[in-house]
Amino acid sequence: MMMSVPNGPIAIDQTGAGNPAGLSATEVQQLMAGGAPAGTRILYPYDGTVFPRGLLPPTLMWEGQGADAVYVHLHAQNFDYKAVLKPTVDPASMQPQLTLPEDVWSKAGFKTGGKSDPFILELSVRAGGKVVGPMRLQFIIAQATVKGSIYYNTYASKLPGAANGGNVLRIPAGGKVELFMSMQCNGCHSVSADGSKMLSQVELINGGNAYSLTSGGSANPQGAPAGPRVSFGALYPDGSKYLSTSTAVSMAHAELAQPPGTAAAATLFDTMTGQAIPDTGIPEGAVMPMFSPDGKHLVFNDFAIESADGLAVMDYDVTTSKASNYKELMRDADATRPGWPFFLPDSKAVVFTRTVSPDFSGLGAYVGIGGAIGAALPLGNLASLPFPGPASDLYIADIATGKVTLLARAMGYALPDDFASNKTSLPFPDDVHQNYFPTVAPIAAGGYFWVFFDSIRHYGNLGIQRQLYGAAIDIAADGSYTADPSHPPFYLPGQEFGAGNHRAFAALDPCRKDGDSCTSGIDCCGGTCFFPETPAELVEPKGTCSPPPKNSCAKRDERCKRDADCCAPENGQPPNSCIAGFCAFVSPN
Fold it and tell me: Could you tell me the CA-to-CA distances from 22 to 25, 169, 204, 489 in Å, in that order?
């Protein structure tokens, strides 16, 4: 959405005559004065969350029913919004809620100062003639959008055209969900970091397809039969190759464990021809593999480490298709096993789960919840039921030291030490240990990396659902990830509610050629977006993909190979670094 935004601070006051709630001046004064906050709290968003700019606005939810008017005050250094509004009521739960206006949220995002400029949200509610509040929380809006689209699996989708089973849905940047792939059982998928290729299982028995994606491409693109075991295959960042997983263990009901001595080996394939590439040096027992965004490294659960109890990393050379320098990253010594490892964009750490699930998924509880229910409902319906899944938690492993750290704040713990005692900061204490399939956006945005995962938890006052969440990760300027770098999560807006969503795969959109429109160099195949003049104050400026000027430095969000390629900072901004092929900044502490 393009929008002119004035220079200087923004102040929006919708509390006077003609306010959206239609209250009299006396009623407005009573509401703004607040009341007793006892027994009422905001259930969503979470205090301390870092939101990326460019998302749809969050929906505010709180305890209590019968609200007929609310007063919202959202403010930061250069933004002030006051409004008296009428809440909506969710038709299924009859619970009150309030979604902030899109234009207000966009302007707040444009005026954010990032980490040094948190927003304060104050909310007072009138119900039954009584005013409760103000309830308060604090959050940050990062100074950039998360580029690209998010693809995810869902079951029991109610979108028009959805298949009765697995589907792949897509959330375009800042938009709402759309059906992307719908076939007999289109589900377990992966997308290359550059957004050019997708692998997806299309049938439970006959395997999957490879798809070439195009910028702005329509749903259900024509696919070509790929090599075997595309489910959870690790696509190389440009989509040219994929590494299949070993079948030494079962994974998420897609790749089933084979008897000892008969398991298929992890194998590298040419994506579009399906031809196997021999002599890669990759261990046969590599499970749930993933390439780093720069394509120079590989991480996987190695079956050779006590039958899939550990993670390993290797270097990878795309010119020779060979992996080398095997290093055991970590191993579990208790009842959990590590799964679904995913590199941060700087390749200095790996995010993963520790789980008790026999197939590393969150679905184990659904297929074992009882004969009567299990026999009566298909898998798709079971995946959307609000039953707790097997315990699964998010961790990060520092590659240089092997130190493993809990992503405590991303899961609802104020401090890592709160984990052992289940002292959660979440509004509902039972929502812990229910975090699955972590993935990471391939580039930095606004001074952060961005992790996405699915969680079985309460979404505000709308009950327990399996939905997608994101969390900001502080970028370590020194490359060391030995302390919790995460922040409280945000609900991913725009997704289909109540459909059992999982594995949110973030990828850039396919790049655009010279002459096409763009909003930054990330959009362009050449890595440079040219603006004919200094962009006006717009939420989303428009430029043209163009070759870079000779002897020029790379601006923020333009393509680079090394830190020295990036322009020096201006106006007191933090220095730029080359991370995953684009100039980005590290948000100062």
Answer: 10, 39, 55, 34
**CA distances, 108 to each of 10, 117, 413, 487, 501 (Å):** 8, 11, 27, 20, 29
pLDDT in tens, 169-228: 999 988 899 998 876 555 678 999 999 999 887 765 556 788 899 877 777 788 888 888
pLDDT tens figures, 469-503: 999 999 999 999 999 999 999 999 999 987 888 88
Q: Is the dihedral of CA 370, 376, 381, 384 positive or negative?
A: negative
Cα gap 169→441, rounded to integer Å:
17
Helices marked H in 338-445: 364-367, 371-376, 379-384, 408-411
Residue 237 has pLDDT above 80, yes or no: yes
Does the pLDDT at position 66 exceed 50? yes
The CA distance from 470 to 313, in Å, is: 25
**List of residues 6+ apart from 142 with CB closer than 8 A:** 50, 51, 52, 53, 112, 114, 445, 446, 447, 448, 472, 587
Q: What is the pTM of this model?
A: 0.93
Per DSSP, the chain holds a count of helices (H) and strands (E) of 6, 39
